[in-house]
Prior knowledge:
Blueprint: E1 6-10, H1 15-25, E2 30-34, H2 50-65, E3 69-78, H3 99-112, E4 119-130, E5 136-147, E6 163-165, H4 177-181, H5 193-205
Parallel strand pairs: 1-2, 1-3
Antiparallel strand pairs: 3-4, 4-5, 5-6
Amino acid sequence: MSIGGGKIVIATHNAGKLAEMRELLAPYGVRAIAASELGLPEPEETGESFIENAEIKARAASDRANLPALADDSGLCVEALGGAPGIASARWAGPSRDFGAAMAKVEEALRAAHASPPFKAHFACALALALPRGRVQSFEGKVFGELIFPPRGSLGFGYDPIFLPEGFSRTFGEMSSEEKHGIPRDGSPSLSHRARAFQIFAKTCLGGRTGE
């Protein structure tokens, strides 16, 4: 399933995710339009996995806009919490999307679970591409690491300030967008979960020009 150039709806109302997706799509000549810019409502996420929820969002946006739509569903999975917050990662931040409170909630949950560091965790991202009343194809990426407290860094968004990827001494909240989401020219995996999912998507649907 290929979309080539042209326009695509990014099925998100999250400004941080939209900015990242626009950066990733820019080298491919694809114009990204936000679902919020088109006044599209956010569908209820009733899936039981990142992929199911990404597909729900992609289908809803594509059918309403009559354009290809790319949706992301991602979250933080903490080993000592049985994979939580997982697909409920955004809900842990509440209606106001207060991720400072969400990170505090994760720390409190670890304390309640009597967990000891290192707090092993991973970020997961599922991307789903939907064509109007047509096929849906999904792609998934993960990055492993551990959580640290207190949060460090004001870059990125969400849980980035408490996530320390394997092999690094800085959190995602202390890294630039290029460090996290840059696509290596040699085709090796990017660092972030979203960029890793995007690499697979680009190879499949954007002509395999990853890293050019």
